[in-house]
Design a protein that fits this description.
By secondary structure, chain A is mainly α. Chain A contains 15 helices and no strands. Chain B is 42% helix and 13% strand. Classes of the chains: A mainly alpha, B alpha+beta.
């Protein structure tokens, strides 16, 4: 066992001088008492502006139709689907941290899971906009749902697009419920520490009268444990469904059995990246260094690297398989990807998702929050490029050379991408001012476990 | 003692004292209507309270079976009975393709039934409660641990209970009046 570092040499996951009182005070004061800074107001206005772009774009889309985008045959899927896959993938990281790392008893995850769950809810909400608005006649989106109607209209159960609908529906509701029920005790803390009557009323209603009775805790714990198990299943199944949207199609570059696991790895990769992109500034601005320590950032960076290596392996195996099989269409799809007009997308993906993340092997890079932040931001860009590559670079040269054609984004393609980022940050910024950012009761539990350990020694 | 008491509340500084207090209250004081409040789920509490198992899991199982079975049945009914349509010679009952929606609904309904069980078992949501009138009790959600001996306990006598709670060396003993 000498090769393994003894646990005590690792820095603690909560600073040693923290108490139950200081945890409750610091986390709730960050939301309840801290004055709204200029930085927040600036960010909020900026995100509001981007939301306005999304709003105007949606009105224009409903009026004019899908022709406002650069879509055409053969490229009938592009930005919208890339955005959709990108956002729902980001959500997966939050659920994985919250659920899988709960089941594997990774105590350090207790300081990350709350804002990661919030991130999941917001990312999934944003992602849901895209497939619906992409329907052509979005106002009939409820036809996906099997309701009794006079048209005798039923959904096509054999289609992966229909499976996708059920997957997103279940995932959105489950992540909201898991997040909210887990936050109840922290909302009760807010209620009891609220400086004004209005705030006390607000959080009093939100916390549903939670008091922290032992039998209530037992119910909550049982629920959290089982839901965590189900949520892990959900992460893998939902993103596999997203992948099946492609795999079920007969397009070379899509019709691959590797897609479900490959997409799940990509989802975790970008999800961990987004957690880092959100967590590093949160830690700095709200003074959470005592709970989000360097060890957290380092661990998250390692997990991001691990997920990234899975993704890299998939890139390698995709290209290798194409040439090993010498399938005419597979090679004809792979070569233009690497050297064709969209080569810059491919090489951009390689740069951000393969090359840059290798820096994270070095402990010095993992210890620098600035380096980790920049790499994580790069991963988010890289993952978007990868989705664009998978979708557009597989479509633009289809089976009939006479139909080949390039895709060029229009103003509105880009407006919806920026708008969706704005909407996400709009919701996340509101979250930082209104709701508990860290899970206080789970931090206290961590502290209690540490005290128990000290007492035994 | 004019107003009817909801109960007596003893305040403690850490979980160990609370756990000891509960054991004493059950063994020495012979109280059965006791409640324990803590700012986080304390390990060993179920054993100390002698609380029988909570029943969230069975409800979740019921929701899972119900949600999954109903969705799968609906797919079969719509595709085979209500509107059979031949799509490229595929079997009407394409059972493998019907699994994914049923799986998702299994998970969704398990979780929804679970929330129902958590809230209804804890008698939540609740806007008013005698404990919310106590200023000191506000720390139960931050950093203090409370033991409540309820007034409806058959052995409850305010004076005796007060004396008994004092022997547990709490930080304070508080009266909680009924609303």
């Amino acid at each position: 066992m000498s090769a393994v570092l003894p646990r005590d040499t690792l820095p603690p996951v909560i600073a040693p001088d923290e108490t139950y009182t200081s945890i409750s005070a610091k986390v709730s004061d960050a939301t309840l008492r801290r004055p709204t800074g200029w930085l927040w107001i600036g960010g909020f206005l900026l995100s509001l502006l981007a939301c306005a772009l999304l709003f105007v774009g949606t009105i224009w889309l409903l009026y004019a139709g899908l022709g406002i985008f650069g879509l055409n045959i053969p490229v009938a899927w592009s930005f919208f689907i890339a955005n959709y896959v990108w956002w729902i993938a980001i959500g997966m990281g939050g659920t994985f941290i919250s659920a899988a790392m709960f089941l594997t008893r990774q105590g350090w995850r207790n300081s990350i899971n709350r804002f990661a769950e919030a991130m999941t809810v917001f990312a999934v909400s944003v992602s849901g906009i895209f497939p619906i608005l992409h329907l052509g006649r979005p106002w009939f989106f409820y036809w996906l749902f099997p309701y009794p109607d006079v048209m005798n209209l039923w959904p096509q159960w054999r289609s992966s697009l229909e499976w996708d609908f059920w997957a997103i529906l279940a995932y959105l509701i489950v992540s909201i419920v898991y997040w909210y029920v887990g936050t109840l005790p922290d909302l009760a803390t807010f209620r009891d520490r609220a400086p004004t009557r209005v705030q006390a009323r607000f959080y009093g209603l939100l916390s549903l009268g939670w008091r922290g009775e032992a039998r209530h805790w037992m119910r909550l714990e049982q629920f959290n444990l089982i839901t965590a198990g189900l949520a892990v299943t959900l992460v893998f199944s939902v993103h596999s469904m997203v992948a099946l949207d492609f795999s079920e199609g007969l397009v070379p570059g899509w019709h691959e059995t590797i897609f479900p696991p490959f997409f799940v790895a990509g989802a975790l990769f970008s999800g961990f990246a987004m957690v880092l992109v959100l967590g590093i500034p949160l830690r700095k601005w709200f003074g959470f260094e005592a709970y989000l320590t360097e060890r957290h950032i380092g661990n998250m960076a390692k997990m991001m690297l691990a997920a990234g290596l899975f993704v890299d392996y998939s890139y390698f195996s995709e290209i290798f398989t194409a040439f090993y099989s010498m399938g005419k269409y597979d090679v004809a799809m792979t070569m233009p990807r690497v050297v064709g007009p969209y080569a810059w997308v491919f090489w951009g993906t390689i740069l951000f998702n393969v090359v840059l993340i290798q820096l994270l092997w070095f402990p010095r890079a993992r210890r620098s929050t600035a380096v980790v932040f920049v790499i994580a931001l790069g991963v988010l860009v890289g993952m978007w490029l990868e989705r664009f590559m998978l979708i557009v670079a597989s479509l633009y040269e289809d089976f009939l050379p006479s139909a080949w054609g390039m895709f060029w984004p229009t103003f509105w393609d880009i407006a919806f991408l920026i708008g969706s980022i704005g909407l996400f940050f709009f919701m996340f910024l509101l979250f930082t001012r209104l709701l508990p950012m860290l899970s206080m009761f789970e931090l206290r539990k961590l502290l209690a476990a540490r005290r128990g350990g000290e007492a035994q020694r | 003692m004019s107003a009817r008491l909801h109960g007596l509340l003893a305040e403690f500084a850490d979980e160990r004292q609370l756990l000891d207090a509960i054991r004493h209250a059950r063994a020495g004081g012979h109280y059965s209507a006791i409640e324990a409040y803590s700012p986080y789920p304390v390990e060993g509490m179920d054993e100390a309270l002698g609380a029988h198992r909570v029943c969230v899991a069975p409800w979740m199982l019921l929701g899972a079976i119900g949600g999954g079975t109903f969705t799968y049945w609906l797919e079969w009914y719509s595709a085979v009975v209500n509107y059979p349509i031949n799509v490229g010679g595929r079997p009407l009952f394409s059972w493998p393709a019907f699994i994914p929606p049923a799986v998702e609904m299994t998970i969704l309904w398990a979780v929804l039934f679970g929330v129902g069980a958590v809230l209804s078992g804890a008698r939540l949501p609740r806007v008013r409660h005698p404990l919310f009138e106590s200023h000191e009790f506000e720390r139960a959600t931050s950093d203090r641990f409370f033991l409540l001996v309820r007034g409806d306990d058959p052995r409850f006598d305010a004076q005796v209970a007060q004396q008994f709670l004092e022997t547990l060396s709490p930080l304070s003993v508080l009266e909680v009046p009924e609303e």
